[in-house]
Every structure is written in C-alpha cells, then in structure tokens.
Amino acid sequence: AFKAAVLIQRWYRRYVARLEMRRRCTWRIFQSIEYACEQDQIKLHNFFSYLMDHFTPSSSKERDFISRMFISGESFKEAELEKYCDYESMEVPDSYTGPRLSFPLLPDHATALLEAFKHKQQLHARYVLNLLHETRKHLKQLPNISHVSTCYSEEVTVCGDLHGQLDDLFLIFYKNGLPSPSKSYVFNGDFVDRGKQSLEILIVLFTFLLIYPKEVHLNRGNHEDHMVNLRYGFTKEVMQKYKVHGKKILKMIQNVFCWLPLATLIDQKVLIIHGGISDTTDLDMLEKIQRNKFISVLRGKKRKESNRNVEIQEINGESKAEADPAGSEAALSLCPQPRPTQAPSMANKLEFSRWVRQTVQEQIEWCRRLVDISESEEEELTYSSVVSLTDLDGPCWTRQEEWKQILDILWSDPVPQEGCSVNTVRGGGCYFGPDVTGKILEKYNLQFLIRSHECKQEGYEFCHNRKVLTIFSASNYYEIGSNRGAYVKLGPDLVPHFVQYQANKTAHTLTMTQRQGFPVALISRVEESAFRALREKLFAHTSALISAFKAYDKDNTGRITLSNWATAVESVLHLGLPWRMLRPQLVRSTADGMLEYKSWLDDLAMEQRSQEHIQSSLLEVIYRNRSNLETIFRIIDRDHSGLISFEEFHQTWKLFSSHMNIELTDDGINDLVRSIDFNKDGNIDFNEFLEAFRLVKQSQ
User: Fold this and answer.
1) Domain of 691: which CATH number?
2) Which residue numbers delimit the EF-hand domain (predicted)?
3) How many CB atoms lie within 10 A of CB 523?
4) Cα dist. 361→336, 366, 392 in Å?
5) Can you give the pTM of this predicted structure?
6) What is the pLDDT of residues 83-126, one digit of tens each?
7) Domain of residue 55, residue span
C-alpha cells in the first residue's frame, strides 16, 4: 500500500509539473506575440514621424493637411474644440430609452448607467460629449501626481489594466463595492483597447470621478494615446457605436486622455504609475511638466524642439555656431532676442517708466516665442501651468527630456537583472532592475512601487524583493482561462491584500463532474489558441523561413535537422521562445530527426487557406502585415469615416513619394487612386485598400 501511494504521488507530481510547463509555454507564446505587435506599432509610428520631420510641404494647405492627419489632437485650440464638440445643439429624441444625465452628477446617475450597460443599452452622444466636457474641466485642475491618504478612508483599492472588459469592472464593484466617500479607488491606466466595451468603461469611470472627485483617481496608461488606439480597436469601437457623432467623441477623448494625471502617491509612501521607472525618473520634473502637451507619447516633437534648443543653448552660454555650425544663422534668425534701446535719463520719470514697460514687454514676447506660446492661445490657468509659473527660476528642461520622463513611466517593465536598458521587446520605455528601484525608493523615501502594464497569470506579481508590485485587472486577457484578474487593497498600515477573480460565465455553468476536469480542459483550450496564433505567425513569414532553412540545407535536399529548424525559426521571428520545447506541437515527429521543411510550410499554408480562400502568396503578405495595413489605413483616414477620400490619398502619397524620391505628377496620383477605387464611388474602403497590395510576380 505504501509503495502504491508513493507511485501515485510520483505520477501525480509529474502530471502537475507537465501541466505547469504547458501553461508556461502557452503564456510565453501569447506574451511574445503581444510585445512583437507593440514593437511593430512603435516602428510604424516612428516611420511616419520620420516622414513628417523630413517632409517639406509645397503649400500652407498641404502643411495643414499633413499636420491634421498625423497630429490630430493638437490642431484644435480651446475655443475651437468646444465649438466643434458642441453638445448643447444636439437634441435627444423622445424615443430614446437609455439613461439621461444632468450635471452636477449624483450617485443615482452612476447606478442608472451601470444598469443600462448591463442590459447593453447605449448612452446618447449628447450625454457622452457633455460628460467628456465636464471630465476635461475637472482633470485640468488636477496635479500631475495625485495624492491619496488612507486617513480619510479605511482602505484604498488599486486596479490595474481593464482593456475594455466591462465584466471585470462589474465584478470588482460587486466584490469590493462601488466608489463612495468611504471607499477610494485608483485605476492605473489602460482602460481602453482590445476589449469591446472600452467606451462604457470610460463613461463609468469618468462618472464616478465627477461624483467622488476625492475618492476616485485615474492614472494615464500607454493605451490612453490616440495613436495606439488606431491599432488596438478603440477608435474603431467608437466609430461603430456612434456613426454620426463618433468623430466629435474621439476628438474630445483624445483631449481628455492628455489631461489624465501621470501618477498617484498613497500616504507619500506608495507610488502608483502605469509602466515603471528608469534611472533618470525625476518625480520633481514629472510634477511640473505640462502633461497636456503630450497628446501622443509615441511622438516627441523634434521640429519645435530643434528651434527651441537654439535659444536654450544661448541661455546656457553655449555658442550655436559651436554646437551646430551648419545653418546657425538661419536658426538664430527664427527667434532673435530683442536688444533694448538705450535707457533715457532718470530725471524724466514718465519717459523712463515707458521705456521699462516697453523693454519688459519685448522680453516677454521673446520668451513667448521661445517656448512656442502665441497670444492667440489664451487658455485658463491649470494646475500644471501655475506650477510652471511659480518655478521660473528652477531648471530649464527640454521637450525631449520631459517626453522621455512620460514615456518611461508609461512603457517600462521591471527585470531581475541590475541596471537600466532600452526596452527592445516593446520598442518603448526601458527595462529597470532592482538597483534602479532601490535608488528611486530611497531618493523619495518610498516603501514600494505599484505598476500595471503586464498581464500576470495570477493577476498580480511581486518582484525586486517585493518592492515592485504588478497588478492586472483584466481576466481572461488572451483567452478564456488564460489568467485571473486581481485588485489590491491598502489600509493605513500599507500592507497589500489581494482579491483574485475570473469573469468567466463558462466556468459558472459547469456541472461538478465537468469541474473536476476543468483545469485540464481549460489549459488545452488556451494552449490550442496560443499555437493557432503562433502558426499564423509562422505562416506569415514563409518566405523568410524558406531562406533561413536553405542556409542550413547546403545540398538542396529539402531537409534540415530539428535543431537547425529551431535556430532558423528564432532567427526570423525573434520571439525568444523555447522552440525545441514547442516543436512537438508544431512539427510532426520524424524517425531520423530530419524535417522536410517545404512540406511542413505547405501544411501551414493549407491550414490558413482553409480559413481564407485567397492565393497563398498574397495571404502570406496580408497575414504578415494586416495589423500594419489596418493602422496605416486608419492613419490616412483622417476623419475616421471608414473611407479614404481622394484628397487624403493624394496628400499621403506625396509624403511617401517624397521619402522614396519618386517623381509622380498629380495626374499620375489621380490615375493611381482611380485604379484602386474598384467600385468607382469616389472613396477607397479597407477591402479596396487591401486589394491594392496584391503581388504581381514579374516574368524572368
């Protein structure tokens, strides 16, 4: 009996270990593909930024058009934005049965919204715009770093990424209670994208923010960025739900996002930021940055920065000619410092007083030009602008330094290794080690750091000797059963207490017999989904894989070793996956340890073609580039109408042709756009846009 028990125990431990290994491999696949996609997004945005910085418009109309296309959130001044998003002129029809909002908001309004969204009702566009308008007014008065105290409430609840998963937010409120004067919440960014109910989450959070401004705190995440929203679904969601007023709602949301606070401090001891820190993170600088200037964190404004650096170098006593001999005269002429006229005699006090006022006014005008402020941009004073004005004698930071501060706290990830390095996997932010964490905590007298930004299987995870806590609140993020969501509660002792959950209706309907085998079935389902995504990725790089395989197949036998297969696949995909361990799920076992790679690739192509009836070579290109193509389409589609107009195509092609040194006349561009417009309706839809990328193989 004892031997039998030991045998069963050994078998069970081996079984559990195999399940855990399968779970970890599945997780690595999902995470590697997600981060590779984020890297593609940043590369694509950097490409368009490069085009913008090196493109010389031929007319003011062309300049305005390109500027509106790629810097859409910045083209509206205060008065223009309010006029454009005029909600008061919208009428709510009597047939509307959804919730109605009146301001100031009351707790009953929040309850009505929650009930409406549970029943899949939609809030009228007038109320959405009104809510965004009031939210923006409130956010503008908030500091960059919110300060929360546990003295006023028994505990503070911190939630991580929600990513448009409204069921998770409902479950948090069900388990923990709604925000109230005795229940404070901090929502740590990434409210939108990926999920299908991002807008509803924003509406709920903004409503509670206005009802309980001292108890509800929102941090900005890396997905609160209109350029990221183009790729990951939020822009598309808004336009589908509000076909008439969607553009106005998007414009207002872009402006609200840039006013979200950057961090939260609990009892001056716990710092909450979305991504992480770097070795250059400076909380003093973060407190004084005018955060609304960074509508998209992906793009640092290099053009204005270069002009401004001329004057900053002069202030610091550095000669522009020494720093950049080429073109120094042209740069200096952009913003010359006024030379004061000779002072009149002190005997004539009236004359002297006028001279002082004139000289001061000239110096003020020079300073305005230096920091890119025009008199037409008269806005109400905000918290950050007041801080800037009261610290005129403080250090002078460049736009690039401020941009990097925000980029690092929104995009960075912790790693076990010491030091700070560029985050090559995501393409933005940095990797920071335990030594960097220790220095920042010691410098600002903090106990620990709470961040989100990374999906964790249990919903939370400690690292850096329990000094960094990652909290992630979107359960089933990759697939049903892939991960739990969690939130953390902090009392006056600042000891974290975790609550985990899984918003999964499937699990609640299982019988007792089904529940016993549920973990295995769930892992199999998640694993199948991960390998399906990985096979799509492999198929999308068929051409590159063939070239890599041929490098190991010197004799053109069509066969390579399984070890060479693993090395070649990693050299093409750069996903950092354990390919030898994943091989049994991807490659049929062979007796002699050799793989016929062409037949293996044919099998991948057959699997994808069974889902899409398109020729294999075209399908490969579309699979490899479909996310980029859709993002490019949405960038060119400036008004988010779902169609590219001839004018939008014309101006974008001029940008491309300038970069590629292709001489193309206006008639040539018109011929090109007409050839893509297959149904001749005067616009290009997404299917026509994809069709234009068919590959035509030239004959020898």
Assistant:
1) 1.10.238.10
2) 540-575, 624-659, 664-699
3) 17
4) 15, 9, 17
5) 0.76
6) 777 888 899 999 999 999 999 999 999 999 999 999 999 999 99
7) 1-71
What is the C-alpha separation between 35 and 24, in angstroms, rounded? 16
Query: Any idea which residue has 């800037």 for tokens?
Result: 388
Structural domains of the chain, count: 3
Number of neighbours of residue 589 by Cβ within 10 angstroms? 8
Q: How many other C-beta atoms can be found within 10 angstroms of the C-beta atom of residue 335?
A: 17
Whole-angstrom Cα Rg for the chain:
29
Tokens 């599945």 -> residue: 26
Percent of the chain with pLDDT over 70: 72
Report whether the peptide linkage leading into residue 104 is cis, meaning its omega lies within 30 degrees of zero. yes
- Does 567 share its domain with 629? no
Hey, which of 14-23, 39-48, 407-416, 611-620 has the most confident mean pLDDT?
Answer: 407-416
Tell the burial category of 190 from Cβ atoms under 10 Å away from its Cβ (0-12, 13-18, 19+): buried
Within-domain flag for 86: no
User: Hey, what are 653's tokens?
Assistant: 């092609």
Asked if 533 and 34 count as a contact pair (C-beta separation under 8 A), the reply is no
Model confidence pLDDT, tens digit, residues 37-48: 777 777 776 776
Cβ contacts of 193 within 8 Å, gap of 6 or more = 163, 164, 223, 228, 229, 232, 233, 234
Dist. CA 205–CA 183, nearest whole Å:
14
Domain end among 53, 71, 89 = 71
Q: Which of 133, 223, 226, 453 is catalytic?
A: 223
Average pLDDT of the chain to the nearest whole number: 79
Which SS3 state, helix, strand or coil, does residue 346 take?
coil
Question: Which of the 8 DSSP states describes residue 491?
Answer: -
Q: What are phi and psi of 9, to 5 degrees?
A: -60, -45
Q: Look up tokens 């579309």; give the residue.
A: 622
The torsion angle over the Cα atoms of residues 78, 109, 187 and 504, rounded to 10 degrees, is -130
As given in the structure block, the two tokens for residue 16 are: 């559990």
3-state secondary structure 272-314: ECCCCCCCCCCHHHHHHCCHHHCCCCCCCCHHHHHHHHHHHHH
Burial annotation 289-325 (CB, 10 A radius, 16+ → b, else e): bbbbebbbbbbbbeeebeebbbbebbeeeeebeeeee
Q: Which two tokens stand for residue 654?
A: 């001029």
| Residue 476 located in a structural domain | no
Whether residue 223 lies in the annotated active site: yes
Separation CA 590–CA 601 (nearest Å): 16
Question: Which pLDDT score is estimated for 622?
Answer: 54
Q: Does position 306 have pLDDT exceeding 70, yes or no? A: no
User: Is residue 625 assigned to a domain?
Assistant: yes
Q: What angle do CA 637, 639, 643 make, to 5 degrees?
A: 45
The size of the chain, in residues, is 700
Same domain? 601 vs 633:
no
Q: Indicate if 527 and 603 belong to the same structural domain.
A: yes
Written as one letter, the residue type at 154 is: E
185 bridge partner residues: 157, 216
d(CA 130, CA 489): 32
- Asked, for residue 648, whether it belongs to a domain, the answer is yes
**Amino acid symbol at 333:** S
